[in-house]
Amino acid sequence: MKNTCPACGYGPIGPFSDQCPMCAEPVRGVRSLRSGARAGGVPSWVWWCLGGLLVAVVLAGWWGLERAREWIETERPQAGAERKADRQGRTVVTTAAQLLQEFQDDPAAADLKYRDMSFELTGVVERQGRFGGDVPFVILHAGDDNAKVKIECYFDGADPAAETRLQRLTKGQRITVSGDYDGQVSNLQVGACVLLK
User: Helix (H, G, I), strand (E, B), or coil: what is residue 12?
Assistant: First the structure.
């Protein structure tokens, strides 16, 4: 099969020639490059745009990672300190007897008073266990085993050492915990607790 040059129209060109003998244009299955296209058919300006976009994405990702690293090193500890200071500012130091008495006198007013507050609470252990098999808890009362309302303290983020201390608690032992008031279902709910003493 003889070809004709697409650029200059010279022909016939033999089947074993790759270029036109007159203008050196490729003739064997290759399109003309005069239109600005590469051998694959995509204009070179498209490849330059894609390359530039790739470089921009890589630089933006690197910049974002640097900002995240700086935040972790500087602002994250400050945010933790601010949360701790905020929690201390909202902490009420009380006993189980005082707290339970307020909820027996006027449950709605006590619930409103302690909403979004934290406690440092001292009470008597009724029992300890695990809620749903996962979260350790301790039920406190004011010294009366037969009280209708008690305080359920959930130790959501307890580490293994804290869990061991919780398992060693005995009925009738007086302890102090800190935690966040989570409302009242049948008993008072205190979450994110930490065993202080």
Answer: coil
CB contact at 8 A, 142 and 102? no
CATH code linked to domain 91-195: 2.40.50.140
Contact criterion met (CB below 8 Å) for 105 and 97:
no
Q: How far is CA 30 from the centre of its chain?
A: 54
Kindly list the domain boundaries of the chain, sorted by start residue.
1-38, 43-89, 91-195
Q: What is the value of pTM for the model shown?
A: 0.55
The identity of residue 43, as a single letter, is P
Length of the chain: 197
Nearest alpha-carbon partner for 115 in 177, 184, 176, 178: 184
Q: Are 181 and 118 in contact (CB under 8 A)?
A: yes
Tell which residue, 195, 12, 38, has the closest CA to residue 120: 195
- Average of pLDDT values for 33-46? 62
